[in-house]
Amino acid sequence: MKKTLKQKNKNGFAILFAILLASLLLEIGLSIYNISVKELVISSFETEVKKAVYAASAGFECVNYWEGNGGKMGTSTSNDNDFTDGIIKCGAGFDLTTPSRKPVNKAYDVTSAAANIEYVTEFWMFLESDSEGKADPYGPCVHTKYVNIKKDHNPTPEEIDEGYSYSITTVTVRGYNSCDLTDKRTVEKEYEFQLR
């Protein structure tokens, strides 16, 4: 007697195996794509942070240069004169068109026993030019506030021992990767320095 072997249908298994293999390869591909997109976003953000840091550094360097070059920061009692007549120049130019960002050079009377006059210089500065050579309002910019407080009293011996200074200068710089502060991707870096 002869035995006949029945051949089982293996076509279903081959299709199932092909679908499993295709879905595994698709998942691997999507994972690699997802990692690549995240790396791109992180590197792009890092570039924007660097722009903001460099903008803040440029603002401080502008103050440092003009402080050492004739002491033009924080010494004038009149508004805007040092900026609009071109005495102080930094970067691609100052924001003279937006009223809230117009450069200011003022003196305030401070009612304090330790201080008499507070000189303030404040400005927004653009760092890049557009194709026509004008300051680019959407490029990196910096907001700088220079405050110099002149003290008007005789120091005690203890104050002299602690390094008393007749004036204290605080410089606050805020660097932005873009001067469009309504943009959700705008990055701000703020630094504050005290000079004595």
Summarize the structure.
The chain is 34% helix and 23% strand.
For the record, the count of structural domains works out to 1
Outline = elongated
What class, by secondary structure content? Answer: alpha+beta
Low-pLDDT regions: none
Number of helices: 3
N- and C-termini, Cα separation: 112 Å
| Share in helix | 25-40%
Q: Which whole number gives the mean pLDDT?
A: 77
As a percent range, the share of strand residues is 15-25%
**Radius of gyration based on Cα positions:** 31 Å
- Annotation, overall tally of beta strands: 6
Give a short account of the largest sheet: 6 strands, antiparallel
Describe the structure.
- This protein is an alpha+beta fold and 196 residues long.
- It has one domain.
- 34% of the residues lie in helices and 23% in strands.
- It is built from 3 helices and 6 strands; from the N terminus they run ααββββαββ.
- The chain has helices spanning 11-68, 81-84, 157-161, and strands spanning 93-94, 104-109, 117-126, 141-150, 167-176, 188-195.
- Strands 1, 2, 3, 4, 5 and 6 form a 6-stranded antiparallel beta sheet that branches.
- A hairpin with a 7-residue loop joins β2 and β3 (117-126).
- The longest helix is centred in the first third of the chain and has 58 residues, at 11-68.
- The N and C termini lie far apart (112 Å).
Write the layout of secondary structure elements.
Layout: H1 11-68, H2 81-84, E1 93-94, E2 104-109, E3 117-126, E4 141-150, H3 157-161, E5 167-176, E6 188-195
Antiparallel strand pairs: 1-3, 2-3, 3-4, 4-5, 5-6
